[in-house]
Amino acid sequence: MSATRVFAARLAGCLVFDPAGDRVGKVRDILVVYRHENPPRVVGLIVEAVGKRRIFLSIGRVASIGNGQVITSGDINTRKFEQRGGEVRIIAELLGRRVHFNDKSGDAIIEDASIESTGPGEWEVTSVFVRRPRNPSTPFTKGVTALVSWDSVTERQPDGESQSAEQLIATYSELKPADLANTLLDLPSER
Q1: Cβ neighbours of residue 134 under 8 Å, at least 6 residues apart?
Q2: For 49-77, what is each residue's pLDDT tens digit?
Q3: Domain match, 77 and 101 both
């Protein structure tokens, strides 16, 4: 049984199996492309295969997602993953970005993103889990969190402002030192 909604941070680290039940690797990131009026469309998963090699798994080849595992359908191309222009990695690039609420109620930072199935082999980002800035009158608390639809926020990353690495670090906290080093080398230079 495949889940219809999955959060990106939960999906990272899940095991990937082929139809025969053999382990292919672990999910390391989710690749999306932005669309003009619609929410970003998921194009695939970045999987760390045996030998620490990162490969691309098309979302169309995913048979099911659930119970901490991903089951594929069919053959998997084991060529090394290379990110193309216009593609965005959710864990490495989207988490930590600043967004502005369309109702003009303020800003927040993306802490997680949920993807939902919209049809066979089609997934899109439907909502984001965000944290508003903390209230200055209560200095020892974190900001208020909310799960909001993608359409209710707009990304805002002013030039010269760096992206938060807090969520990225939390996602990669369980990696072994060598794996973490390889992962950091694969990040975009801005991160």
Answers
A1: 141, 142, 143
A2: 988 889 999 999 999 998 889 999 888 88
A3: no
What distance lies between CA 36 and its chain's CA centroid?
19
Question: How many angstroms separate the CA atoms of 128 and 125, rounded?
Answer: 8
Q: Which of 45, 188, 29, 164 is nearest to 95 (CA)?
A: 164
Q: How many domains does the chain have?
A: 2
> How far is 65 from 33, CA to CA, in rounded Å?
20
Q: Clarify whether residues 83 and 96 are in a common domain.
A: no
Q: How does pLDDT run across 104-134, given as a tens digit for each residue?
A: 999 999 999 999 999 888 999 999 999 998 8
Secondary structure E strands in the chain = 5-7, 15-17, 23-33, 41-49, 54-58, 62-66, 69-72, 87-89, 98-101, 107-119, 122-131, 145-149, 153-155
Which of 64, 89, 114 marks a domain boundary? 89
Name the H helices within the chain: 8-11, 166-171, 177-186
The identity of residue 47, as a single letter, is: V
Closest to 72 measured CA to CA, from 58, 51, 90: 58
Range of the domain at 96: 92-173
Is this structure's pTM higher than 0.90? Answer: no
| N-term to C-term CA, the chain | 36
d(CA 116, CA 26): 20
Residue 191, in any domain of the structure: no
